[in-house]
Amino acid sequence: MTNDTELESRIDEILKSEKENAIPRMTKKDYIILAVLVGLSLLGIIGGFFL
Amino acid sequence: MSRKHDVNKEIENEVYCGTLPVLPKERKYGFLDALLVLSGYCIATWSYTQGSYLATLVGFKQLLIGAFLAAIFMLLIYQLPVILSSRYGIDIWIWLRSVFGSNGNKAVTLIIILINFPWYAVCCELFADSMENLLGLFGIQLFNGAHLILSLSCVVVGTIIALRGVTTITWTTRILVPLLLLVGVAVVVVGFTSVPMEAIWNYQPELAGDADKTVNYVLSIEANFAFVITLVGGMAEVPRLCKTERSGFYAGVLGQGAAGSFFVVVGAVMAIAMQYVTGQMVDDPTLMMATLSAPILGLSSLLLVAFANIGTQAVGSYIYGVMLKSTFKKSSYKILVLILGVYVAILCIWGKITEYFGSFLTIGACVYAPLAALLFVDFFMIRKQKLDLKSAYELEGHNAYRYSKGFNIVGIICLALGFVFTLLIYDPINGVIHNKILFMLTPTFASFIFTGVLYYLLSKIPAIRRYIRRDTHAGPDKKPFDRAKTPPRQNIILLPFIWLICKIVTGPYKLEIEKKNMEGIKPPFLVYGSHNSFMDFYVTPLALKPYRANYISELEGFEFFGEWIYRRIGCLGTRKFINDQHLVKNIGKVIKRGDIMVIYPEARYANVGTNSHLTPSIAKLAKLLKVPVVTINMHGNYLQQPIWNLKERKGARLKAELKCVVRPEEVGKLSVDEIFSRISNELQYDEYKYQLENKISIKDEWRAEGLHYPLYRCRKCGKDFAMTSSGSKITCKFCGDSYEMDEYGVLNSTEGKKIHIPDWYEWQRGFVHDEIREGKYKLDIPVRIWALPNSVNFVDCGEGRLIHDNNGFSLEFDNYRSEKHETLVFPAKSMISIHTEYDYRGIYGPCVTLSTYDDTFFIYPTDESRDVFNPTKIQFATEYLGGLYN
């Protein structure tokens, strides 16, 4: 198998697995938690100005 | 067997230490392993240096906020795109090829490594310092040059570990990180127990007289932002080996934001405690342990710290080695790691890296903040999480990321402007604040926002969008254009600019506007115009001045110029030759609000400067809306830029006749037929006749080039698709019959015979009608298909088959919308004509388009069908079969 063939077959497999969500995706819930964490960190940073 | 083993090993090496995408089944890391490895990458003795630096700026509580919250805030944002690494099993540097281009990416990688890898020389320096301290504890004095030998030994051992690959790295970090955490805990315990807890908790730095507390706090936040963002380049190596996106992402956030930051705080505690006891801030944990606690603790921590420096060097060499491998894919991973080792060794020999560490860190952040912003915006907003992997890996025939000789000029300019923007806010070398308001956002975050917004806005400019989105086939925007959306009025602020542009464009062609029967005619009214070329859109606004108007435009204009601007200049989007009820409703809305509605009822440019047949529906519309009807018949527009050759002819002269054909008082009284007759009469034109009568001389030597598209049949031998054109001549490929187009647009044969171009054109039509009547007409050819679903992008549908016969069109292809191989049928009677192009946008060649409500399919010939694909003949057949000539 040449390097390019190996690469091409891997890309095809990756694209297939992407469609099938073989690697579990970040969910909506994950993004909401993330947004809350960003908000809380920002509040904390702003709070630091008053210390 | 042995050969097979070698091949497998080779691929394995390529996967873990190279560029190949890591398949889901090959993923090694769960959250914990990824966290440990990334903690190993983030925890280093320079964390102590950072901690003691922060302690010079702010009190302990503010320091805690900065070290944890600021780091986590920035990490949560800039780390987010590393989910691409988990999803595709690739490094971010593969994705960045789309942002900078394949060669641009190489340049950026080298810059990043040059300014970032010196960190590892600092590790080696700290290792040497620790070893000297250790030997000092035993009273051993070292000879001159021993420091260099010690630091080089750290380079050598770290490089050897990196050369052994990912498994060794994993085990190194599995042992290293927990032990380092133990040292950290010990330092905190010793720190807090050696001095009163209040001394640390209530610690405030002694500020110089002119120091501003707020500025210092912002500087501490900036230091934390810069500290974490400079790790972006290497952070994706581990997530690409993770089994889930979540584990890859949070391992990065917590590896640096919790473990890394903990060590920064440890460094601060140590520095504050040492200052309290000795009056001096120290960032060496071994010295602190030896001073504040039992020497044995100092000794053991020193050994661990020494080992940590080697581990950091090893992890860094691995990560940057793979990063380089992603860029220079033909080079061996081992060679690249050795080169990195040599670079660090040179810096150690130079001996001044610790002195310039701050400059390296800050300049690194100036580059990294825009880089992280570009990655973020590109991943989420521009490419919407879809990459053309085959182009990213530069597989043969996949060139979406080649851009301009391998450089994406837009990405590189944004990176450069982001860098400059940071320096315009704050000069990190001299510590001068240039813009206090932006400084409050911190230079790193401000630059992140600036670069991200700049890149996003630039991507909204259609020409730039097309430049950076050559990969739309990988993740096209499929959402259909919203035809129902109420069109805005032509923007009153833009109106003077529209007139100015129209004036500038028409100026060289000395446009004359003649108005007839227009006294007392005020909006709302309908305008029906002749349609010759794009120049029509420049002439009409000037003819309608001082009123504003709305125009109907095919969707591809929205794609070309951008939907936002196209709507602002008053365009209503539709698809050609479909029964668009939304369009009729929107026309009604325009008239109801008192505006002018301009319609070009032929719905296609004149092929040879003559009008197409119109349908009575245009008169019915006027009756329905109960408004006056005005016609605008434009002359010279075709001559200036005929559809078969889009080069502009400077000799053309423009004239427009604006005439009210149905006055307000007549609308109710006239029948549909009477209105239709008046409109049709006013929209008759023959541009070659106009040229000859007005002696408009067009002397361009290439004036006949492209004429073979509308005149495709040889008048002498009678063969279809026989003509070819060059310069001012049109010639038959088969019998050699040739005509010279003179400067007044008349074709002259070698025998002195004169041909009026529209006559030749209509003569061909008769043969097509005959073919259809005799049942001989059939087109069945392979074609290339691009779909236009909206104003954002074309979608490549690959090759398909087009059949055109007495039943109409059928188009067989892989429909991207249904993801099935389908045949779309367009009955003959549903289309009175077809949109044709002879050289679409001057690049893509001849095509015809077929539309559904949600897609316009641009259909081009393949190499195989090029010789028998002629848009003019297809149009003749469509018009006949659609009943336009009945």
Characterization of the model:
The complex is a heterodimer of chains A (51) and B (886). Chain A has 51 residues and is mainly alpha-helical. Chain A is built from 2 helices and no strands. The longest helix of chain A is centred in the last third of the chain and has 21 residues. Chain A is elongated. The termini of chain A are far apart. The model of chain A has no long low-confidence stretch (mean pLDDT 88). The longest helix of chain B has 34 residues. The N and C termini of chain B lie far apart (77 Å). In chain B, helix 19 packs antiparallel against helix 21. The radius of gyration of chain B is 36 Å and the shape is elongated. Chain B contains 33 helices and 21 strands. Helix content of chain B is 51%, strand content 13%. In chain B, the strands form 4 sheets. A 7-stranded mixed β-sheet of chain B has the order 3-9-8-4-7-5-6, sandwiched between helices. Chain B has a 7-stranded antiparallel β-sheet with strand order 18-17-16-15-21-20-19, with helices on one face. In chain B, strands 10-11-12-13-14 form a 5-stranded antiparallel β-sheet. Chain B has 886 residues and is α+β, with helices and mostly antiparallel strands. The N terminus of chain B is likely disordered. Chains A and B meet through helix 1 and helix 2 of A and helix 1, helix 4, helix 5, helix 12 and helix 13 of B.
Task: Please give a quick description of this structure.
The complex is a heterodimer of chains A (51) and B (886). Chain A is mainly α and 51 residues long. Chain A is built from 2 helices and no strands.
